[in-house]
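Continuing from yesterday's entry. The apo prediction looked reasonable, so today I'm repeating it with pyridoxal-5'-phosphate included to see how the binding region is handled. Same sequence as before; SMILES copied from the compound registry.
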Amino acid sequence: MLLFTPGPTPVPQNVRNAMAQETMHHRTPEFEAIFEKTRSHLFKLFKTDEVVMIASSGTGAMEAAVINLCHNTLLSVNSGKFGERFGKIAKAHGLGNVEIKNEWDTPVSVEAVVAAVKANSDIDAIAVQVSESAGGLRHPVEEIAKAVKEINPEIMIIADGITAVGVEPIDVTHIDALIAGSQKALMLPPGLAILGLSNSAIDKIGEGKGYYLNLASEIKKQRQNTTAYTAATTLVIGLLEVLETIEVDGGIENLYEKTATRAQAVKSALEAIGLHVYPKSPAKSMTTIDDESASEIRKLLKEKYGVNVAGGQDHLKGKIFRINQMGLIEDYEMAWVVNAVELALDTLGKRAYDATATKVFNEITFGLGK
Ligand SMILES: *Cc1c(COP(=O)(O)O)cnc(C)c1O
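Holo prediction written out below.
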């Protein structure tokens, strides 16, 4: 079965092997050396002033960012389940929350964020997804960050890059916290989250807030290549292997380029067989299709063609399917995925099979006819 869900994503064999070694003690020079190497790779990936790894799923890093960087009111962008979560985190900690809500196919506009910031001087942090995985859309995070900093540079910009870091380049010039999680673009099992932080973020953090998620304690320790509490040693070892694999495989820029081309090829292939891309501004992390037969297509993909893609959640359940684009994906596997979708449409009597999807995919991916 090909795993093509936008998280969890497949863990490469060499990464699984690296994580199959005996558990290492975390307070040892051996582990500190691994931690140091991993940190230096992360600095290159995030391009932020500081990086911090915490043992939690991605939501833990979202919570850490909110409690440490928002001391008054959080403006959160809700175009899906993950954006909604930022608001819930703020409320759970007794912080103020202003939300800009849109349908799950609609990215927030820079103007809407600017207007909200101007209307409420209590807002001291903004939280937004780079790629909102609920509907597979891309928010204009960099433009938002720039516009907000022009109004008030003290406002912290929290960017959830859980399905964006490692997928596409992100301009962190005006971003204060950039979040990643292990089981999405980083091709690892769940359980490790990473935050890239700006120097302004570190100033605002000060002594830090919370206990386990206190970022000041972690920054202090991690600068010494250790962690405040027991490190997720196995996952850190896996992460180092992932980052080294990306480097050997042509580097991160190469991965960004391959991902962008593949996402474009899949989008064009599926549009060529009459399918509709759901989000108005598709993210590169996944291809999301809305279709009245989404459930039937997913079922056929799984049972007949050996492809596991994700469906939708909440009100989009049974209405969309999402094909992963994150990680090291072989073109021959993706060629099969688009072909399988076309076969499923034929089985459902929606469109006679003529190999159009594969042809379009191949033209873009392999430059056929050029
Ligand atoms: C998966 C995901 C999360 C939540 O991560 P968990 O690891 O499930 O806690 C947050 N944001 C986005 C955009 C995601 O895709």
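Comparison notes:
- The chain has a mean pLDDT of 97.
- The radius of gyration is 21 Å.
Will overlay with the apo model tomorrow.
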